[in-house]
Here is the input.
Amino acid sequence: MDAEREVLDVLARNAREDIDDIAAQTGLDAAAVADAIDALEAKSVVHGYQAVVDWDRVDEGKIRAVVEINVELDRETGYEQVADRIAKFPAVDALHLVSGDYDFAVEVLGENMQDVSEFISEQVAPMPEVTQTVTHYIMETYKDGGIRFEDGDDDDRLSVSP
Amino acid sequence: MRLSDRARTLPESGIRKFFELAEARDDVISLGVGEPDFSAPWAARTAAIDSLERGKTSYTSNRGMAALRERIADHHERYDQSYDSESEVLVTTGASEAVDLAFRALVDPGDTVAVHEPTYISYGPGIELAGGERLTVPTRAADDFALTRESLEAAGAAEADLLVLCYPNNPTGATMTDKELAEVAAFCRDEDLRVVADEIYAALTYGADHSSIATQPGMRERTVVVNGFSKAYAMTGLRLGYALGPAEAIDAMNRIHQYTMLSAPTTPQYAAIEALDRCDDEVTEMVEEYNRRRRLVVSRFNEMGLDTFEPGGAFYAFPECGGDDEAFAEELLEAEGVAVVPGSVFGEGGEGHLRVSYATSMRELKEATDRIASFVADR
Here is the structure.
C-alpha cells in the first residue's frame, strides 16, 4: 500500500490522529506523513475534517432530512449546473446524483422541521429545473460515517485471559 | 470428595492471579486479554442465528459437517497445504480440544514432549494429562523468540518423541520464516520427532504470509496442524477449531473425540461456513487495524525505553521490562490501573518481559501506553 493510502486509511477512521501517531501506526516518518496529508489535500482527495455528530443528543440540536429531487434538463442546463445551484445553499449538507427513480439525493440540515420545509418549498422547489421534491425527515440515526451510535463501551471480555 | 492425584497436582494457571487482581478494580485498562476485541463478522453471526431458526440443533458428523471440512481444506490451500476433507480434517470444540486430542493420540505414558517456551500455557498441563513428560526448550530474545536447532540441541530435544510448535506465538508475537522452519524441520526428521503445530494465529501476520512447518519436505506425514476460527474470525466464544494431518492421526484423534465430545457444536459450524465463504474482507480489515496498533505499541514501548522486538504475528508485543516481571506488572496495575501479563507466566525465557495484547481500541492503547510511560519514568 502506498504512503498516501495508508495515511488516508488512518484519517478516515480518526481525523484527529496527530502526525506522530499516524507515523507510528503506518511505520512512515513524520515528515512523510505530513507530505502525504498535504498531497491528499492538494489533490482534493481530502476535502475537510469533521466530527461525526449525533444531533439527537445535542440540546437545541438539528434536524436532518433526505430530499429526493427530480429535475428537467435542457440544452443549456446539465446536472452539473443544477447541482452547483443546489449545493450553494448552506442548508445542503450533502448532494449526490443517484441512479433510480429520482435524480438528486440531498441531505439537508436545519434547526427544525419548519425550517427545512420552508427551505425546500421556498428555495429548492421554485427552481425552474426542479419538477418534484419528496422530503424524508430523519427520525433517528443509528449509524453514520461508519460509526454505530450507541452508548459507550460494551466490552464484556475477561480482563485477563491466556 | 476425594480427587484424583492427576487433578490435585495440576497447577493453577499463573494468569489466574492477574485476572483476580485486575477484576478487583473497575478502572483498569487491560492489555492482558488473549482474544480479539472485534466481534465475529455479522454475516457469520447471522448464519448461526439462521441455522437456529431453521432448527439445526442436532449433532453433526463426528468429524464435523462435510461442507465445513471441504471449505477448511480449500482455505488451507492459501498456505500451500493440501488435505483431504474426508480423511484428514477433524472439526473440534476450539483449537484447545484439537491440541488435547493430538496429545492423547500421539503421546504414550513416559514419552517426552519438547515445548518451546515462552508459549501458550496449556501445552504443559495437556502433555501431563496425556501421561507425557514435558521438556522445556527456551527460546531467546536474541533470536526474537524463534525456535532454533541450537536451542533444541542444547535442551536435549533429540531424545524427545514429539515437538509442540506454536507460531505465530502467544505470548511473544514471534513468527518463523521458511528458512528458520527448515532448520527445525531438519532436526525433527534427523531425530524422528513428530510435531503438533498450533497455528491458531496463522491469519494474523504482518508483512510476510504465514508459513507452516507441515509444508517443509518430509514434515506433512509427521505433523498435526491445529487451527480454528477464534482469532482470525473473532469467534473465541463460539469454540470452534480443527486439526489437519495424516489420515491415521486424524482417525485416532476422531476415535477419542467421538467418545469425549461426539461432535463440535453445530451452530458455530454454520457460522464458520459463512466465515470461510464470505468474510475474508472483514479479516483483512481486522489485520490492517491490528497492524496499525502493533506499530504504535512497539514504537511507544521502544520510545519509553522498554526494548521491544517487532512481532510478526498474533496480537501481542513482548517488551523487556528487566528484572522481576511479576513485580513490575503488579506495581503497574496498582499505580496506573493498567493490566499486562508477566512474561514468566508463559514459562522459561519469558521472565523480564511483559505480554502486551493490542487487541484493544487505539484510544485505550494510547491511554495505556501513556500511563505505562509515566510509570516507567517514575520508577
Notes: Chain B is about 40% helix and 15% strand. Chain B has a mean pLDDT of 97. The radius of gyration of chain B is 20 Å.
